[in-house]
Amino acid sequence: MSNPAVSAIVLAAGFSSRMGDENKLLLPFGQHSVLQETLSQLCASNVAEVILVSGFQSSTVLNSLDTSRITITSCKNYYEGMTRSIQQGVRAVADTSEGYMICLGDMPLIQKAEYNLLIEAFGKAYRNSPQTIILAESQGRRGQPVTFSTHYREAILNHQEMNGCKGIIEDNYGNVTTVEMAGDSILCDIDTIADYRNILKSRR
Question: pTM for the full model?
Answer without folding.
Answer: 0.96
